[in-house]
Structure formats: structure tokens, C-alpha cells
Amino acid sequence: MQTWQIVLLVVLVVVIAALVALYIFGSKMQKKSETAQADMMAGAQTYSILVIDKKMMKLKEAGFPKIVIDQTPKYLRGSKVPVVKAKIGPKVATLMCDAKVFDLIPVKKEVKAVMNGIYIIDVKGLRTGLDSKPEKQGFFKRLAAKVKKADK
């Protein structure tokens, strides 16, 4: 065998080994995520909350209790998280929110929130349904829509 064939074979074996390792690691992480999600849903309760404000903030600046910041890994403390300020009964609380639910939460409206501790898992409209925001369109979809509108 020539040297370039040997090098190509070694590189191919290394790439295949890396893909197998990533597959195994990914499946373990997915199982861990599913069990954590199931545990979170098991302890969840439904509250009626009045949303005062919502924004993406750094974890340190959000005003969470010290124990929450201490339990967060150091590399994630500077990252931005979806934060919701809400009135739960007579108290105003700072809550963390799931990224999927963050866009659905209306500001200055009352909603039913499924929560586990200070984490909002799901949101439902209290008196009316929630208005889902239209999906963001890419440049070409907007351009095609303008062309269709102009043709009519």
C-alpha cells in the first residue's frame, strides 16, 4: 500500500470512531434530559400569575436568589436566560422561563402557568387563548410574498 492510502485509511477510521463516540454520548445526554424533564413535570403546579415584564437577561443581573446562582455551573452564569417578572398572589417574583414558552407569554396579562419552583414550564391563557406570534420569515420568503402581493 502507498503512504497516501494508509493516511486516508487512518483518517477514515478516526472519523468513524469519533462519529460513534458522538452518537453514544448524544443518546446518553438525551436520556438524561428526558428523565430531568419527567422529574420537572412530576413536581409541577399550576398558578395564576400576572406577567409584569419579560426579557432576556444575564443570570447574575436577573435578581435570582443567591442559591440559584450558586447551583448554576460557572460557565453558564454569564449567559442570557429568559426572565419573567410576575405577580403571584400578593408577591412580585422573578421567574426563569423555558425558551419555547417565552415567546408565548403576554406582557401585562394574567395567565395560568405550569411551574416547578421558579421555572415556568408551560403557559395557558386564563380567560382567552394565547396569541402565538407569526414565525419569522427569511429574506426570500418575504421577497416572494411582496412579489405575489404586487402581482395581484
Query: Largest sheet, order of strands side by side?
Result: 1-2-3-5-4
Beta-strand proportion: 25-35%
For the sheet with most strands, the description reads:
5 strands, mixed, barrel
CA gyration radius, whole angstroms: 23 Å
The count of strands amounts to 5
Low-pLDDT runs of 5+ residues are none
Please provide the ordered H/E string of secondary-structure elements.
HEHEEHEEH
Task: Round the mean pLDDT to the nearest integer and report it.
Answer: 89
Helix content: 40-55%
Summary?
By secondary structure, the protein is of the alpha+beta class. It contains 4 helices and 5 strands; from the N terminus they run H-E-H-E-E-H-E-E-H.
Q: Can you tag this structure with a few keywords?
A:
152 residues, alpha+beta, extended
Description:
This protein is of the alpha+beta class. It is 41% helix and 29% strand. It has 4 helices and 5 strands. The chain has helices at 3-42, 66-71, 99-102, 139-151; strands at 45-58, 80-88, 91-97, 110-116, 119-125. The chain has a 5-stranded mixed beta barrel. Strand 2 (80-88) and strand 3 (91-97) form a beta hairpin. The mean pLDDT is 89.
What is the strand and helix layout of this fold?
Elements: H1 3-42, E1 45-58, H2 66-71, E2 80-88, E3 91-97, H3 99-102, E4 110-116, E5 119-125, H4 139-151
